[in-house]
């Protein structure tokens, strides 16, 4: 049974279709990674799947149910997100931020039950941020911030987590650490992860399936072994050998 | 740590509550006629005080103090809502021009209806102020699409404020002599001359708004992370946004209708409260901002009445002296952090 399936999905902004006929099928515990040049529309696809943007044709099925027919709260228990934009928060501790993930489970005033608190603690443990629970969220490093946002998504206790370029603000050490946490999550909690990445090496190692977005369509869709061969990646990113060496020459000066 | 926080919140709420009591007492006792605290108690509980003292306490100072308490709280809460809405710590009804928009509409209604010798009740005034607040808010919302940065939004708001104030001045110039004195005082902000009838109406309006805002504490918390996260958590963003705009507008309108535009309280009070409580959780901030705003305004009104007694200062003069530096501090801190 697929956790998430898209059927001839069209995505775009302001009713203008950017990418059409997207057919994806993701099983439980899998990592699906979107790669492709900047501005190819990776975020647009993720946002449409997460119901942040209107669906411009076709459909998405979550647990084999039409996703537009799932109520807001129920949907929040199925899919958690983490976006690129920095969260501007004032005077909230990391624990407070993570705790917002429990929103769909708390009562009317959003007070945390004992169980909720345990879930928050567990999520923070899982991504190794228990020690900064009481630190001010606006005063921690980018690497820590990304992990806090990941813990927030984890404690939302969903089957699917959507990550939009989760590693973009991080240096190489944090990048590796971050993806190893993601890998751990899919193994331990049987989570399904759908994300976009710029780092091809990481994408190749971590993903079960890779989606290449180019132009107005999905150019290729398959396992890392199928995607990362021959000259395909050069083609995907429009890397022209002669131009490339010219550019490198310029850099040498 | 959980416990430490709970203790901190309790202590802070306690302090705010005590401050409200102290300033309420001071506001009733101190004035051009000094009244001793025991005499005030006599007026309330024994009816044994002399008539003059009774009148001063019951008909002048007590309603005024209550009005300051209610409107100060409302002002601070309205500021807090706008700050949450725009994700901007220096947003407030005054700097965004919302107060001035409300002022303009109230002045128009006052002048034209008074000219026709009609009696204007407070409900009409609140409604006029609400319409004005919504007009300004509409412009501000239009501009947020183009003015992404915090400072630009504020500058646009201030400009809207100036335009509205200019129109108000124009209207006042055309008003009849007798109205001008009143209008002039009011258009600069003053708590003077509150009747029990006013207090009753503002209490009802503010109470209803407060309850509705408190019920919204949970979605507001999710909203403080940004819209996409709130949406993902199942918050109906469109409804929430409309509610925030309407409620903050209603609170601003209520203040302007009764006391005119009052500057900076909407920014300064929530900021101080945030610092004291060391949190931005709406469920704590909503009641805390209300109480903080009350204390701030009670303190400022006390100064406004007594500093140059018997002349009364505009309340905005006093609130600006204490509020504006706080805004500057916030701006400077922001910049410092961005450069790090």
Describe the model:
The complex is a heterodimer of chains A (253) and B (340). Chain A is built from 10 helices and 10 strands. By secondary structure, chain A is of the alpha/beta class. Chain A has 2 domains: 172 residues, P-loop containing nucleotide triphosphate hydrolases (Rossmann fold), CATH 3.40.50; 73 residues, no CATH class. Chain A has a 6-stranded mixed beta sheet, with helices on both faces. In chain A, strands 2-1-4-5 form a 4-stranded antiparallel beta sheet, with helices on one face. In chain A, strand 1 and strand 2 form a beta hairpin. In chain A, helix 4 crosses helix 5. The model of chain A has no long low-confidence stretch (mean pLDDT 88). Chain B has 340 residues and is mainly α. Chain B has one domain: Orthogonal Bundle (ABC transporter involved in vitamin B12 uptake, BtuC), CATH 1.10.3470. In chain B, 79% of the residues lie in helices and 0% in strands. Chain B contains 14 helices and no strands. At the A-B interface, helix 2 and strand 6 of A face helix 9 and helix 10 of B.
The helical percent of chain A reads: 25-40%
Major sheet details of chain A: 6 strands, mixed
Low-confidence stretches of chain B: 336-340
Placed side by side, the strands forming the largest sheet of chain A appear as 6-7-8-3-9-10
* Cα end-to-end separation of chain A: 56 Å
* CATH fold annotation of the largest domain in chain A: Rossmann fold
Q: Pairing-aware structural class of the strands and helices of chain B?
A: mainly alpha
Rg of chain A computed from alpha carbons, rounded to a whole number of angstroms: 19 Å
The CATH superfamily of the largest domain in chain A appears as P-loop containing nucleotide triphosphate hydrolases
Oligomeric organization of the protein chains: heterodimer
